[in-house]
Amino acid sequence: MDLLSMNGVSKSFFDVTVLDRVDFVVREGEVHALLGENGAGKSTLMNILAGVLDKDAGSVRFDGRQFDHITVKESENAGIAFVHQELNLFNDLTVYENIYLRKEIIGALGILNKKAMIENTRDLFNRLGVDIDPAALVSELDTSKKQLLEIAKALFAQAKLFILDEPTTALNSNEIEHLFSIIRRLKAEGKTFIFISHKMNEIFAIADRYTVLNNGRMVMSGDIKDTNPREVTRLMVGGKLVDAGYYFERKLGNPVLILRGLTGSGFENVDLTVREGEVIGFTGLKGAGISELFQTIFGVLPMRSGDIELFGRKINKQTIHGAMRSRVAMIAANRKENSIIPDMALLENFYASEHVLSRRRQVIRRRKEVANYDALRDKLGVKAADPLDLITSLSGGNQQKVILARWLNTNAKILIMDNPTQGIDVGAKAEIYKLILELANSGITVLFNTLEIPEIQKVADRCIVFFHGRIQAELERNDISEEKVMLCATGAANMREDAI
Amino acid sequence: MAQAEIKAEKRPRKSALKTLGNYSFILIFLCIFLTYIWVNGGATTISGVMNILRHSTVVGIIAFGMGLVIITGGIDLSVGSMLSLIGGFSVEVFNKTNSPIATLLFALAMGFVLGMLNGVLVGKVRMPAFIVTLATMMIYRSMAQYYLRAAVRKSIYNMNGQLSAYDAFYGFGQQKLLSVPVVGLVLIAVTIIMVFITTSTKYGKSVFAVGSNEKAAQLAGINVSWTRSTVYIITGVLCGLAAFIWLAMNGSVDPATLGKSNEMYAIAAVVIGGVSMAGGKGKLLGVLFGAMSYTIIDKIIASLRMDALINDTIKGTILLVAVLIQIMIPVLRGKMVKKTI
Asked: Does pLDDT of B234 surpass 90?
């Protein structure tokens, strides 16, 4: 029986079609994998189901009832539980308080019946096979327990359909196995799951059926046993056009950065040799460990073992200041939180790092600084008039260029860019990638990280694919294809097809 | 996004309201100062006006340290107690050495040490500034009072007037140069140095950066914990200087009362001066005007022969009005800009 059927669902934001007449059917008591690349429309579809967004056209039928304009409340009451990636728990309350929030059992005189709530919570956990102390503080639980608590909470609210949005991102393999055993147990009780994940091995381990979205369209739906990881990956990627862009051959110099067995929080055993003037694109799923690797090279996070060799000098303990002095720069991810100094002018933001290196000469020479700023502003094409304007008056792309200029101004020779095109428009993205190539041509080495594989194809000499904190593949420029990268990044390349 | 770009290019150089928003402390100061002249009428004298500067010196010097601390997003409640403790011990040092120079050096060094205790706990150990300085506020004042009773065995710390250097030391506090009090000149000098540090040195910029976005400052390479520690040390040293000036002006220290509520007046002077309590924003020049505004209020109340107990009612009201003006000006400006579009 079909528990959920969404027919001809369309949605557009400001003339951009995100969902185009999508059909999506989930049967009662199955685990249904919803697949697609970033931006394929999975989240939009699920948000419509959960009542967060309203659809433009189409119909939604759930549990035998027609829902036309569903609200979050109605969706919850109908038995749909959205277990978000960002966990919606109150860290400073206990486990049972989270479960019973606004549904507390109240005894005489309006006093909370804690004993009953704790007992019921314990029963619920026993039924699930989860080992969590009902009276523990949520902040003391690790991520996997929090995720299970979310599921338990939904179960307590009598949910029929659970939407799990990339639930395994922060879990290790034992925890994933535990989560799967719980999903199987609930499935046996007749509960239904929509499972969103990029990881092929998990999908083929847990799902019964699948639906693939590509560019807002439903391209395929069927039984998992009739397909294989390679086929699914091909459907997800779909024959997208890649323009070769502005890449040009350059002569690479000597190795400038060598990593040997580098291990830190979130990644392990990374071996890599980077040559002067090389552009390397890193990619992987969220939480694959690339950002952590970058931060460790730059001295933000501590290294656990292995070593870093910079310009022939071995480093056993890296600090931000040390990295800067060895002419390494890092443009951090999340520009607003990690790069922008919002109360300061463009000029001050631009000089923030150079001032650290030249701190022996304390007095600022304004005229010279403005001249340097003007030169780099023109070189990078920053659209800004007055160097004393606040940096927050610029658009995202221009802000990012100012941050890039901040580091070029320190004479950095190795530029690490953690997701540099995040939150900036298409035109500015293209400009930033053009700049990367120009910088590389002038001898600067660039390591960057992106979730969008076409960006790597445009500029990188090499592509490093991460999976679960390890280098999964190292592809030379000519070998980089979206399909191949996706196969590695989702772990599908590890699986033998006949094993499924 | 495109709109923001256009705005950045076409914005007028500087609007009058924007300038007023940045310098609202002058507006407030002028209002209070004109009230003072109006109240005094014909009795206003140059020496009376100069006395404003003189009586602003101690709180003013302390407030500059406080301003620096507040720009990093912190607070230092211990300044009044530091003044009391350093002042008391400096009296003893002077009585033993008979040397104003040694007294000054001792006061500065002791300020450095007391400030460093705050700085290390806030900057390195990362304890909340409010708690650390609340604790040291209690500790420092109690030490000043306990030492007086247990070791000095007097009711106040009193400089020995028989010493040969006493007249020179005390005279320094009363001296005038072309009718300008010398201690006032010290305040002007501190103002110039502090404004220079905050606007024209790399250290000054890093103080603002830490207060504006700590994470971004750290990732830009700024040593955040060191920067945080230093602002408390500078505040301690300035408290040492203020204590020395106090001795030159008064010759004695009552540890129970000296510097009581000074932390509050210093914070108020900083806020009236336009420094944001959230950190990262403001100009230290305003602190001078904030401190002088409060001194003038004392004078106005004295010349009106009002009960001194009304003092804090008026000071509190002025603080509220000052903050209200600072909040209203950007709102007004926003409305004006909208209309022009």
From this structure: yes
**Confidence at residue B15, expressed as pLDDT on a 0 to 100 scale:** 58
Residue B5's closest CA among A408, A248, A228, A395? A395
List, in sequence order, every beta strand (DSSP E) within A325-455: 328-331, 414-418, 445-449
The token pair at A351 is 């000089």
ipTM summary value: 0.82
Task: Tell me if A356 and B216 make a contact (CB, 8 A cut-off).
Answer: no
From B8, B201, B209, residue closest to A362, measured CB to CB: B201
DSSP run (H or E) holding B57? helix B46-71
The more confident residue out of B308 and A270 is A270
Q: What is the mean pLDDT of each run of 10 residues along chain A (500 residues)?
A: 90 80 93 84 88 89 87 88 79 90 81 89 86 89 83 84 84 81 89 88 90 88 88 75 67 91 91 93 87 93 92 90 93 89 92 91 90 89 84 85 92 92 73 87 92 84 91 88 84 56
Gyration radius from chain A CA atoms: 25
B310 close to A (CB below 8 A): no
Which domains are seen in chain A, by residue range? 2-237 (3.40.50.300), 255-499 (3.40.50.300)
Chain B CB contacts of A425 below 8 Å: 1
pLDDT confidence band for B19 (50 / 70 / 90): low
Distances (CA, A) of A4 to A64, A67, A73: 8, 11, 17
| pLDDT band (50, 70, 90) for residue B18 | low
Say how many C-beta atoms besides its own lie within 10 A of residue A437's C-beta.
Answer: 18
Residues 6+ apart with CB under 8 A from A13: none
The continuous run of DSSP H or E covering B21 comes out as helix B16-22
| C-alpha to C-alpha distance for B70 and B64, rounded to whole angstroms | 10
Question: Is the CB of B8 less than 8 angstroms away from the CB of A393?
Answer: yes
What is the C-alpha to C-alpha distance for residues B20 and A77, in angstroms, rounded to an integer? 55
Between chains, do B221 and A321 touch, taking CB under 8 Å as contact?
yes
Pick the CATH number of B46-334 from 3.30.420, 1.25.10, 3.30.450, 1.10.3470: 1.10.3470
Q: Does B208 contact A348 at a Cβ distance shorter than 8 Å?
A: yes
Q: Hey, are the CB atoms on B216 and A338 less than 8 Å from each other?
A: yes
Rounded to the nearest angstrom, the gap between the alpha carbon of residue B295 and the centroid of all alpha carbons in its chain is 13
**Using the beta-carbon criterion (under 8 Å), do B213 and A362 form an inter-chain contact?**
no
For residue B59, the model assigns a pLDDT of: 94
What residues in A contact B221, CB-CB < 8 Å?
320-321, 324, 352-353, 356-357
- Chain A residues close to B7, C-beta within 8 Å: 393
Which region holds residue B307: left if phi is over 0, alpha if psi is between -120 and 50, else beta?
beta
Of residues A85 and B83, the one with the higher pLDDT is B83
**For residue B30, what are the contacts with CB-CB under 8 A and spacing of at least 6?**
none
Chain B CB contacts of A330 under 8 Å are: 219
Cα separation, B81 vs A451, in Å, equals 56
Q: Judge contact between B94 and B268, C-beta under 8 A.
A: no
- Site of tokens 């230290």: B284
Closest residue on chain A to B278 (Cα): A343
The Cα–Cα gap between B227 and A440 comes to 35
Residue of B70, B202, B227, B333 to mutate, testing the A interface (most A Cβ within 10 Å of its Cβ): B202
Rg (chain B; Cα; Å): 21
